Amino acid sequence: MLKWGGGGGINSYCIRLTNNTTNKLIQRNDEKLNDHLASKAKFSVESVYFDEKSGIKITKFLNNSHALNHKSIQDKNILQQIALKLKELHQSKLEFKNIFNIFDIYKRYFSLLKQKDIFYKYHENMDYILKAFDKINLYFQQENIKLCPCHNDLVPENILIKDRIYLIDWEYSGKSDALWELANFMIESRLSTDLKEIFLQSYFKRQISAKETLHLSYYAFCCDVLWTLWTALKEENGEFYGNYGFMRINRAYKQLKSLKL
């Protein structure tokens, strides 16, 4: 954290430094625009400096706020607030120019991975898992998916609470399917079945359809596959995440039993 003072007193700022690996994964010009639009619309905290070449960003520090974690995000009241904030984002007129398509992102990440066997070693049935991933891709290509502004990286730590909900770190933001965002959020938050129902009811204010339920299950599977590949790419470049990738791909494999493919 950086503190800077002038005639108006002392202000605190957060500085984000990045590395070459992350910069390969992120389109910084898209992030810069989306970050600006999100903060202008009061979804995020204002960034006072953003260099799209280096990825260095300086953001105002949100005093008296706290980031969520996997324990605090289980609170029903907080989940209801997040659901309403996401619905507000998804129905907003934010003009993101880029599209976050998980299948296109997967292809790009895979092309960046130099040693493909690193990814395949995460699970002995990886070929079977990826065939299912491809089937789901073909399925969604036949669907008329409505795109909307999405954050796309809603891990608990990217959600701040002060007087209201703030969504930070818009690196992966772009136009996407709202159901993808919801599925990804529920996976990242490790919600129980009961809490998922509370969250979805708070978002939709109605019973979700069978097709919506199917799409949520497809996206939950796909997000584990995508972020396992992300982990492999990170580890190839010297960043290690323990058993994170194995945990995600094992969960994806278990989900296959219940998917209708």
From TrEMBL:
<dbReference type="GO" id="GO:0004305">
    <property type="term" value="F:ethanolamine kinase activity"/>
</dbReference>
<dbReference type="GO" id="GO:0005737">
    <property type="term" value="C:cytoplasm"/>
</dbReference>
<protein>
    <submittedName>
        <fullName>Thiamine kinase</fullName>
    </submittedName>
</protein>
<keyword id="KW-0808">Transferase</keyword>
<dbReference type="GO" id="GO:0006646">
    <property type="term" value="P:phosphatidylethanolamine biosynthetic process"/>
</dbReference>
<dbReference type="InterPro" id="IPR011009">
    <property type="entry name" value="Kinase-like_dom_sf"/>
</dbReference>
<dbReference type="Pfam" id="PF01633">
    <property type="entry name" value="Choline_kinase"/>
</dbReference>
<keyword id="KW-0418">Kinase</keyword>
